[in-house]
Amino acid sequence: MSINKYEKHLVIFLEDEPYRSILNGVKKSTNTNAHVIDIKEPCGGWKKVFDNLEENLNLVKNNKQCHILLLMDFDDKSTNQLGSFQARRDKLNEIVPEQYRNRVFILGVNHKEVENLKRFLKKSNLEEIGKLLIKDCPDSNLSSWGNTHLECNLPEIERMRGLGVFGWLFS
Fold it and tell me: Cα Rg for the chain, rounded, in angstroms?
């Protein structure tokens, strides 16, 4: 099923295939409005996620109903190499004009890659992780996010909530 571009929706650009598996779990979650989520093909690296964002900025420029989410690894490198969450957030702000920033978000895994979450959260597959992480979001119980791999996302999740995204993203 495709999204209705005339209603609020979320376009997701993702770094690689493991994020797609997590998103499959998100879309299968009973509290998610899956029909408002448009998941693009994996970009093949965090730099390519930013390239795709730049190429597709017209989505938010031309449609006030469109929101964009970038999913990528933060890799925990020095900020000069854009490895940390803040450095990637700064890169996002360089690309997205200020008037559209309230509709563009970035989330990801710090200190390693997505695959490390399976061991850390003791889940056998990434879809299960997606279901676990998303069940916390609408109710403000972000206990699954409070760990070294995901806690950097907490301010961004609160920003999404504060801007009303959760009102239409979750049932």
Answer: 15
* Vertex 49 angle, CA 18 and 138, to 5°: 60
Take residue 87 and report the two structure tokens written for it.
């450095």
- What CA–CA distances, in Å, run from 89 to 11, 50, 68, 114? 18, 11, 14, 19
- Residue type, position 148, single letter: T
- Tokens of residue 125, six digits: 């597959």
**Sequence-ordered alpha helix ranges (H) in 41-153:** 46-55, 58-62, 85-95, 115-121, 126-136
**Residue 1, pLDDT score:** 57
Question: Which residue in this structure is represented by tokens 């950097």?
Answer: 152
The gap from C-alpha 11 to its chain's centroid, in whole angstroms, comes to 10
H or E stretch including 157?
A: helix 154-162
Ramachandran region of residue 76, left (φ > 0), alpha (ψ -120 to 50) or beta? left
Confidence bin at 12 (pLDDT 50/70/90): very high
Write down the pLDDT at residue 2. Answer: 80
Residue type at 92 in one-letter notation: L
Please, what is the average pLDDT of the chain? 90
Sequence letter at residue 97:
P
